[in-house]
Amino acid sequence: MAKRKVIISCAITGSVHTPSMSPYLPYRPEDIARQAIEAAEAGAAILHLHARDPENGRPSADPEVFLRFLPSIRQASDGIINISTGGSSVMSLDDRLAPALRTKPEMCSLNMGSMNFGIYPLMRDGMEWRHEWEPKLLEATRSTIFRNTFADIEDILLRLGRDCGTRFEFECYDVGHLYTLKHFVDRGLVKGPFFIQFVMGILGGIGADADNLIHMKRIADKLFGDDYLFSVLAAGRQQMPLATMGATLGGNVRVGLEDNLFLDRGTLARSNAEQVSRIRSILEGLSLDIATPDEARAMLDLKGKDEVDF
């Protein structure tokens, strides 16, 4: 029997953390490219990418900003480029989709529902902000909803999946999102093998603890049988413990500065590659093999790096 391979995803910058929280969070195109390439060299098969304004680090959905780093990553790495369709909760759906529709990547993330997405607790009393936009964006999540209606999800599946050949990282922030995914599977809009990311620890979604991870997997097994792969993303300090647990349950893992700024308690990660190296060391210590990008492409039935538009 072939030995199981574990896919490491790395979320390089995201739209949750801000430059004032860590000097190591990349936001300039050249820094995003460099950290993505280093993460791939450290063992990440999938590179989950957002863009930011190069001047101040504010989350950006401008396709031209993405095109300032995507070609460099593609040329220097075999990593699977996975572009967010989430952007941030203050962006419109058209804005969020613009980069992926322009570049037609192998993969995109797809949040499986509308939800409260509260990152305002990241604000701390006495925090010194480098940019005026940072506390304003965080505070806005107290009163806004991240929108992905059934119509929005269908639109994304058709415009990106059917029309561009892009496959998805289905981000499920709670058990109900698994049932939403099953709805689209039953309608024939999603075909296996599909890749489910259990997203845990976001305020508004399921909590990051062992019981919830087991429950998410149990429901996914009931709904999808053997026709899916899962990965575990735990925000904050539960990143490494729950990723490790997910791997022991037969899953894959996601790390990166989008999800957690730290390497150890009180120690900021100096790069995404540090987190990739840490989880790789843990996995190899458990006698698990790490999937190469091409092995991950085969596992997820992706179209290949030469079928993109960048």
UniProtKB/TrEMBL annotation:
<dbReference type="InterPro" id="IPR013785">
    <property type="entry name" value="Aldolase_TIM"/>
</dbReference>
<dbReference type="InterPro" id="IPR008567">
    <property type="entry name" value="BKACE"/>
</dbReference>
<keyword id="KW-0862">Zinc</keyword>
<keyword id="KW-0808">Transferase</keyword>
<dbReference type="Pfam" id="PF05853">
    <property type="entry name" value="BKACE"/>
</dbReference>
<keyword id="KW-0479">Metal-binding</keyword>
<protein>
    <submittedName>
        <fullName>3-keto-5-aminohexanoate cleavage protein</fullName>
    </submittedName>
</protein>
